[in-house]
Amino acid sequence: MIATAFGAILAKSWRVDGALRVYLCGSVAIERGDRLVRDSALAGPQGRLLFVFLMSRSPQPVSKTDLVHALWGASAPPSADTALNAVISKLRRVLRTVDVDEPDGILSDAGTYRLALTSSWVDVDVARTAADRAEGAVRRGDLAAAWANANVAAAIARQPFLPDESRLWVQRQREMLARVWRRAALVLSEVSTRNQEYELGIQHAWEVAQAEPFDELACQALMKAHAAAGNRAEALRVYARCRKLFRDELGAEPSEQTASVFLSILRT
């Protein structure tokens, strides 16, 4: 039943229905029907950066200064305005190949630019929405919907984001996607544990704890999964390691919520 629900949601999310589809995770691409523009055709490396930056800020306008900084950082060319205009013109031509024309392309107004793609599907937005829905479904007790949406979010968010770039705004987007992936993985852990798939529950929680050792929700999920699997001793060891990490690195104790999970397992 859960696998069927996942298939239905994934099919709905990824169906080709004529809408513009934008992929920012993994290989950057724009798709409409049978037309596909890959990152190598996005007006060069600067065109790809411009497209992803505008997409990540859409639908908010971005100043020309911010665009120049996003593309070149402190190494902007002497004629930055001319260079930027050239990249924008090239990207507009690329967008027209998938039937994106002004005013639904790159809009300019009073020194700002905005990427407005009507009825577009964007993988990053889908991942965030799916994570929200997964958490909401867990709270409602709808494990099938939680599992399905969490898988959609995790599948997208775990893809690399502009792996060959190191600009600050790129790093921030990666951090956001990492948070989305952790949220999704914790939902997968909880659903697996509730469905008595204990090894899966442990694995998902463990992966989050390895990625972010100070994530207390991961510590709590890992304790619960081990305890549900009947390994009470390992659940208690998880808390001991978490507590030692917090004391050694932060000079603090884990939260009351984490301690409460520990105490509930200790008393069983």
Structural write-up:
With 268 residues, the chain is of the alpha+beta class. The protein folds into two domains: 20-119, Winged helix-like DNA-binding domain superfamily/Winged helix DNA-binding domain (Arc Repressor Mutant, subunit A), CATH 1.10.10.10; 122-266, Tetratricopeptide repeat domain (Serine Threonine Protein Phosphatase 5, Tetratricopeptide repeat). It is 63% helix and 9% strand. The protein has eleven helices and seven strands. The chain has helices at residues 2-14, 44-57, 64-72, 80-96, 123-140, 143-157, 168-194, 198-211, 216-228, 232-250, 256-266; strands spanning 21-23, 29-32, 35-38, 62-63, 106-109, 112-115, 121-122. The strands form two sheets. Strands 3-2-1-7 form a four-stranded mixed β-sheet. A three-stranded antiparallel β-sheet has the order 4-6-5. A hairpin with a 5-residue loop joins strand 1 (21-23) and strand 2. Helix 2 crosses helix 4 (80-96), helix 7 packs parallel to helix 9 (216-228) and helix 8 (198-211) runs antiparallel to helix 9 (216-228). The longest helix is centred in the last third of the chain and has 27 residues, at 168-194. It is elongated. Residues 1-7 have low confidence and may be disordered.
* Overall helicity: 55-70%
Gross morphology: elongated
Largest sheet strand order: 3-2-1-7
Q: End-to-end distance, in Å? A: 32 Å
User: Largest sheet, described in full?
Assistant: 4 strands, mixed
- How large is the radius of gyration? 22 Å
Secondary structure layout plus pairing:
Blueprint: H1 2-14, E1 21-23, E2 29-32, E3 35-38, H2 44-57, E4 62-63, H3 64-72, H4 80-96, E5 106-109, E6 112-115, E7 121-122, H5 123-140, H6 143-157, H7 168-194, H8 198-211, H9 216-228, H10 232-250, H11 256-266
Parallel strand pairs: 1-7
Antiparallel strand pairs: 1-2, 2-3, 4-6, 5-6
Helix pairs in contact: 1-6, 2-4, 5-6, 5-7, 6-7, 7-8, 7-9, 8-9, 9-10, 9-11, 10-11
